[in-house]
Recover the amino acids of this structure.
């Protein structure tokens, strides 16, 4: 089986394993038979939690267990520093769960991680999950059915809906990647779509977007430039959002011409994506895309 | 947090940027006269302030007092406001400079235009965009040089000083946006920040001495939700939407609109609120105190418990017996117990987003019919 970002070989550690979010992630991994190998919590080195050894630093955990991926379940104010620690220790995939990381910290993280061989997902990411392979996400109560759909979204909660609706229509998932809802994130939908196009397991990409910015358009442009190798189904939520209003910490605000949901839907359509206007319409569009 | 103009200018001055001499009325920079007029500017955050009569040039103490009284009272076009900034007039060529975070690109950019006084939203063809690295202590010489060419400014040393001050302020204060519009180039080549708008990252509050979080630009409801750790948007319809997650918030708002409903507010409960009974209860109270006809709860919870959320909602609903109708779509963790609790309290249980939004819209419409 294939997937993006994770494999059956992924060896996972949780930074902040002893906290409540960390424990929840560990439980999700256990339920999905994901290979949790270690936890990190400064000051608790030498103890055990959730059935695995705890280390003071990521570097120690990597040396001792060969961990390759980290779920960072620490508070927002220390999350960027935790991700840098993971990167320096040779972690290949670091997922930041915390919401509301200081934007300048996220900017520094982007600048310092460029070209360092560590994929940073988030902040404010619900995680990455490949059914049957690994679950590095906060998802527990969604149907985890392997299948042909690569799903990319800022929002975790939207992906729960789409995964469930797709499963009800008999369609499974290759990988779900929640890029994170904070204003500045490490890995963007452009990167995700690029990875999905190169993934053997992914036959159709579903892109969930929001008003504001142009990253979904960039992703579709990249896809179109690559010759549209697999179908791209896109939904932009926030069509009823009053102009100029910001929602949550998602940073979904149309500041400039072309950034409203309607404008972005038109741009995606023009690039050749199959654009749907509601969550409920996603499964049918995916079914049609798979038939082509 | 969006700063008022006078706050933004104090901050800029602290970082070495030239601003007009002035202060909040009655602290005025000398007495106005025909040869040395002063400018009185109402301190509000809404746009197009000048076009709405919020900026007055005064040439005598009498004119100043009259202008201040009028600005404080407000007009058809302007809300009343207490704070009036009074400054010496600075005239010359108007240019535009801004530093902002490009969210998609993941780095800060410097935007410059030789035509000041324009809307950044309009993005005129004259706007030049220069990328910066957040790691750079100083603005690189080539960026200053390119900005100078684009702006056509006379004094390279002056521009160097201005950009150094703006960049220091942007980094030290963790700005999301720092806009100087207009920046005035005077006849003797000085560059003065005549108007300034600064947005500081709320998520960076822990990096500095606690500062007033600022409620400007937000309604009381939004500010109180924010104090309880929840992001909320107040609107003008009659359906209060409570969801978990900003993406689902927007999808729910869309579905309600499609069904012909109108949202009174959208409240996005985050992870920490769902795990904190006290904040949750406070936010639900605030929602129930809004004047609305239906409360629509749409949650698909993975780690938090639907049953705990339902219990909190039912208890607040019961404290408001004549309050709005309740429609709940609660899926995921502990959903069966949650649905039972809602039903027992006389609420409607829906089994999907579409059904929930449709039921809410129908209930709101029925309530409207009954009242009219």
């Amino acid at each position: 089986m294939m997937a993006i970002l994770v494999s059956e070989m992924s060896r996972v550690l949780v930074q902040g394993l002893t906290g409540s979010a960390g424990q929840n992630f560990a439980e999700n991994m256990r339920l999905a038979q994901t290979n949790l190998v270690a936890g990190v919590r400064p000051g608790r080195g030498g103890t055990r939690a959730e059935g695995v050894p705890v280390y003071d630093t990521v570097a120690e955990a990597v040396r001792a267990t060969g961990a390759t991926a980290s779920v960072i379940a620490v508070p927002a104010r220390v999350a960027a520093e935790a991700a840098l620690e993971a990167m320096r220790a040779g972690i290949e995939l670091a997922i930041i769960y915390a919401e509301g990381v200081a934007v300048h910290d996220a900017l520094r993280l982007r600048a310092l991680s460029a070209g360092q061989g560590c994929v940073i997902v988030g902040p404010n990411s619900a995680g990455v999950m490949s059914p049957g392979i690994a679950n590095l996400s906060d998802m527990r109560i969604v149907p985890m059915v392997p299948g042909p759909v690569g799903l990319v979204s800022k929002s975790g909660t939207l992906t729960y809906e789409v995964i469930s609706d797709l499963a009800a229509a008999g369609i499974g998932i290759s990988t779900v990647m929640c890029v994170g809802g904070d204003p500045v994130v490490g890995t963007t939908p452009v990167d995700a779509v690029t990875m999905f196009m190169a993934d053997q397991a992914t036959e159709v990409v579903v892109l969930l977007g929001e008003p504001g910015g142009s990253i979904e358009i960039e992703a579709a442009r990249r896809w179109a430039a690559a010759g549209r190798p697999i179908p791209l189904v896109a939904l932009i939520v926030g069509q009823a959002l009053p102009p100029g209003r910001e929602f949550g910490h998602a940073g979904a605000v149309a500041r400039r011409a072309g950034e409203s949901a309607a404008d972005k839907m038109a741009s995606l359509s023009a690039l050749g994506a199959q654009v749907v206007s509601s969550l409920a319409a996603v499964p049918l569009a995916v079914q049609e895309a798979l038939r082509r | 947090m969006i700063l008022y103009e006078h706050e933004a200018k104090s901050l800029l001055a602290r970082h070495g940027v030239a601003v007009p001499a002035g202060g909040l009325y009655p602290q005025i920079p000398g007495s106005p006269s025909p040869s040395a007029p002063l400018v009185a500017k109402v301190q509000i955050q809404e746009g197009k302030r000048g076009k709405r009569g919020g900026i007055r040039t005064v040439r005598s103490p009498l004119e100043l007092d009259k202008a201040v009284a009028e600005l404080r009272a407000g007009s058809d076009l302007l809300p009343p406001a207490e704070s009036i900034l009074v400054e010496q007039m600075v005239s010359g060529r108007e240019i535009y400079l801004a530093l902002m975070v490009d969210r998609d690109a993941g780095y800060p950019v410097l935007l410059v235009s030789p035509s000041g006084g324009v809307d950044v939203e309009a993005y005129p063809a004259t706007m030049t965009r220069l990328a910066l690295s957040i790691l750079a202590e100083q603005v690189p010489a080539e960026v200053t040089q390119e900005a100078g060419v684009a702006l056509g400014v006379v004094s390279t040393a002056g521009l160097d000083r201005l950009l150094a001050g703006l960049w220091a302020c942007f980094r030290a204060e963790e700005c999301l946006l720092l806009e100087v519009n207009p920046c005035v180039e005077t006849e003797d080549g000085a560059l003065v920040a005549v108007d300034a708008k600064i947005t500081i990252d709320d998520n960076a509050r822990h990096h500095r001495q606690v500062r007033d979080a600022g409620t400007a630009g937000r309604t009381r409801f939004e500010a109180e939700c924010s104090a309880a750790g929840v992001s909320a948007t107040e609107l003008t319809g009659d359906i209060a939407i409570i969801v978990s997650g900003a993406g689902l918030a927007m999808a729910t708002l869309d579905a309600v609109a499609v069904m012909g409903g109108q949202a009174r507010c959208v409240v996005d409960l985050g992870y920490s609120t769902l795990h904190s009974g006290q904040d949750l209860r406070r936010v639900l109270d605030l929602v129930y105190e809004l004047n609305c006809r239906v409360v629509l709860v749409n949650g698909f919870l993975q780690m938090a418990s639907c049953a705990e959320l339902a219990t909190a909602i039912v208890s607040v609903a019961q404290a408001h017996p004549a309050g709005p109708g309740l429609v709940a779509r609660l899926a995921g963790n502990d959903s069966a117990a949650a649905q039972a609790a809602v039903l027992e309290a006389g609420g409607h249980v829906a089994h999907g987003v579409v059904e929930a939004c449709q039921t809410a819209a129908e209930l709101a419409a029925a309530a409207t019919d009954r009242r009219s």
Q: What stands out?
A: Chain A has one domain: 12-291. The CA atoms of residues 10 and 68 of chain A lie 6 Å apart. The longest strand of chain A covers residues 146-153.
